[in-house]
Amino acid sequence: MIGGEFGEVPADHIRLMLHTREGSFVQERPREVDLHAMTRPLPLSLFVETLSNEADVLSIQDRWSELACNDPFLHPMWCMSWWECYRTHEMQLRIMVVRNSHGDILGLAPFYLRVSPLMGRELRFLGDGIICSEYLSVLASPGTETEVTLAIAEALHQQGQSEKRGTWDMLDLDCYVSDDRCMGILKNYMQEHGHACHVDEVMGCWRIDFSEGWEAYLAKMSKSRRNKGRRLLKQVQSGGPYEVKWVEHHSQIEAFMNNLTNLHQSRWQGKGESGCFADPKFGKFLRQVAVQAIRCGRAHLMQLNYEGLPVAMQFGLRSDTTIFSYQVGVDTSSTAESPGVAMNMFLIHDGVQRGLTGIDFLRGDEPYKATLRAERIRTVRLHVFARYPLAHLRYRCWRTACEAKRLAKDWLKTPQKSNPAIEQEA
């Protein structure tokens, strides 16, 4: 028996009430439990409800916001803004909400369902895809991570055993930290219950830890870069041609976004790239997020002017400890010295003054991140396949295609040796 605040429960049983809008059923069955992975007892009963319409989601939005207060890419301001801007007719909300026997929400998984001609019904995180949401996971009240994730995993397992009665064919969950506890529990549970699982490493995120203060951060840099950082920060703080502007009200958003769009697009189009803002949905999405972030005190929108013109800008979000630098724009043609570096030096110093502990530059291996002494965070993507025969066939085909793609990339990277006999004949 396992004892605790939920009462005593046999270690080889878990009892869940799985709710849908069409009805509910009780499932009790023995299963193996890794007691070493448990930090708290299994609950006697948890209720897993799947929300598939916006009215139901709106009814839990306050609690969702509480659970994601320090996870901006799991917050409804981000997820539901993305849903409004990027949903298509092939997509449906599938937010799995975990309640205790009193009806209190302990956690949730912000999923949506997309129907694919090849892979069938794909269950994914809200906000995935082209906008590159980071650090996605299952949300849970502190101390209930194991119970909440096991409840969601059991529900997914039950819903993925039959093509006709099931609700999904493949889970495609991107992008989460490789040692994320909840995602590790979910993956292990599904694998132990016969689901084919595959984890791929994706492009990492980069974070600077400045919890020991400004001078301790500078000490990580070379002498020349340290001196340059101090000089640029002094120039920005002294005023003169520089001016720092923060977006703190809804009325400032439009001008800020127009300037950010212009800086970002001019730089990327100069490299022959279309740029993120070439898609009007992207600008609309960020504007909606900005409104919500200002409302809940999580916006970190900064513009650095030089001689009255914007030369560096950041669209960021803020948790209690960290700045998440999501989108930037820099005028590399400006006469200002290294405006991008100047902005980052100011952001780091300002973060220290605010009592924050780090700035996260998120996904991408751009050289400036390592130059600023950011450390790479390993992130991964999880695929899980349902248990019925067609899903298993899809898994085999998908693995074969992935392996062929990998071999093709390796071949293209390898210098090809010429054939001397052919060269002689030519």
Structure description:
- With 426 residues, this protein is α+β, with helices and mostly antiparallel strands.
- The chain is built from 13 helices and 15 strands.
- Helix 4 (145-159) runs parallel beside helix 5 (181-192), helix 7 packs across helix 10 (339-354) and helix 8 (253-270) runs antiparallel to helix 9 (280-295).
- Residues 1-43 and 416-426 have low confidence and may be disordered.
- The longest helix is centred in the last third of the chain and has 25 residues, at 389-413.
- The chain starts with 12 loop residues before the first strand and ends with a helix.
- It has helices at residues 54-59, 61-67, 76-86, 145-159, 181-192, 214-218, 223-237, 253-270, 280-295, 339-354, 367-371, 389-413, 420-425; strands spanning 13-20, 23-30, 46-51, 91-99, 105-116, 120-125, 139-140, 170-177, 197-209, 242-246, 299-306, 309-318, 322-330, 358-363, 375-385.
